[in-house]
Every structure is written in C-alpha cells, then in structure tokens.
Amino acid sequence: MDLKLIWKKKFFSNHYRIFEHGHQIGELINKPFSNTTKAKLNGEEYIFKTTGFFNRNTEIIDSSGNVVGKIDYGSLMRKATISTKESVNSLKFDNSWNTKWSIQNKNRTEIKYAGSSTKGEIESKVDDSILLLSGLFITNYYWQTMVAVMIAIMIPIMANS
C-alpha cells in the first residue's frame, strides 16, 4: 500500500493538519509548555506524553489509556527509536537541514517525510497511524527543543547588552 499524505501548519504553530486527497484525516496538537500532545489519524486517537529531564522519552497512549508505544530520543537531535508491540523502528534525518526524514524498520524505509516549517508530504508503504503520527511528533519535539535552547542562549546575551 502506498499512501501520500500532506500536512500543513501555520508558522510557529504546533497544530499540524493532515490531509489525504484534499480531505483532512488527522491532526497533531501540542499545547505550548505542555508535556502532552494529542493526535488523531483516520479515527484513531493517541496522546504522546513526554517525561524525564536529561533522559527524556515519550509514551504513546491510545484512547483507552493503554501504552501502545514508546519513543526514545538520540543524542544531538538526529535520531529516535519508536517501539511498539509490533516492531522497533528508527527515525533519522536524511539531510543536514532536517527537511527530509524517514522511519525505517529492519533497514527498509517504510515512511518518508519532507517539509518546511509550514507544510510537507508523507509517503508511506505502511498504514500505521502510530508511526505516521510519530514522525511528525518527533520532528515537532526536536524543533521545540531547539527553539528553547536558542531562547536560553539569547536571554543572557540580551540581558548583558
């Protein structure tokens, strides 16, 4: 099965809308300063709940409250591992600008993502809502982390000016 999805969001927004053939089929909504993100795709609903400080990870929770997956983050914000009951998958960025990334299972690319800060595409050989949403979630998580680090660096510089 080959899926082609489009995602859109406003600049600095954490609300991704996911489309197939022009119809919205899902969304990913992260509230600022929250460790939980709500996500929907094709009628399936999940919550991504991030915990930890130095060794952060995220649990993926279904609408019944069951933990159905876990995300472990790599160093330098370049990789992540998505573990579900069915499989262990790796997310990696495919270019230095982090505008292309993919999720692989057993050295085979299953899902490819491409995008900018406001829109992008997803091409998938699998119809797995958890994996499809995880790819957007991880990228948004890394983007938010990078912005927080930049703010933490800029505040002391601006205060000393």
Average pLDDT across residues?
A: 88
Tally of domains: 1
Element-by-element helix/strand order: EEEEEEEEEEEEH
Number of strands: 12
Radius of gyration: 16 Å
Kindly report the oligomeric state of this protein.
single chain
Strands of the biggest beta sheet: in what spatial order? 1-2-3-4-5-6-7-8-9-10-11-12
In DSSP terms, counting alpha (H) and pi (I) runs of 4 or more, how many helices? 1
Percentage of residues in strands: over 45%
Report on the structure:
- With 161 residues, this protein is α+β, with helices and mostly antiparallel strands.
- The chain has one domain (3-159).
- The protein has one helix and twelve strands.
- It has one helix at 129-159; strands at 3-8, 15-20, 23-30, 36-41, 44-51, 57-62, 67-73, 79-84, 88-93, 100-105, 108-115, 119-124.
- A twelve-stranded antiparallel barrel has the order 1-2-3-4-5-6-7-8-9-10-11-12.
- Strand 3 (23-30) and strand 4 form a beta hairpin.
- The chain is globular, with a radius of gyration of 16 Å.
- 27% of the residues are buried.
- The mean pLDDT is 88.
Secondary structure: elements and pairs:
Blueprint: E1 3-8, E2 15-20, E3 23-30, E4 36-41, E5 44-51, E6 57-62, E7 67-73, E8 79-84, E9 88-93, E10 100-105, E11 108-115, E12 119-124, H1 129-159
